[in-house]
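Schema walk-through. Below, the input block comes first and the output block second. Nothing else is stored per chain. Lengths vary across the set, and this one has 120 residues.
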Amino acid sequence: LVIYIFLFFWARVGDYFAWILAGGYLLVKDGLHSGQSLGKKVFGLRVVNVDMKRPGDITDSVKRNLIFFIPGLFRFVPFLGSLVATVVFAIELYFIFNDVQGLRWGDNFARTMVVEEKID
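--- output ---
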């Protein structure tokens, strides 16, 4: 029983630690390399701040991706986490398909947009 409790405790600690790391990366990923996450770099895309006409920074990235972080806060509550995630993704899809420029809610909130990187 003691071993089971010990293993269960460390499994939960590991789960929380992994969530903190993944959630942290999700928030800052678009601001680490001048507005390019790994996926955006591969596909030649970049996040830019539309007001300042510059590549996105960490602050822009956190604002832009905060809406995807929120469902993770409810991750450990059965059913509620899935419900919140569904609502958040529905909001994002609504904005993508109804915004004139196809911007997500996160882009509108952060005043950013994803653009093709110019290749000189």
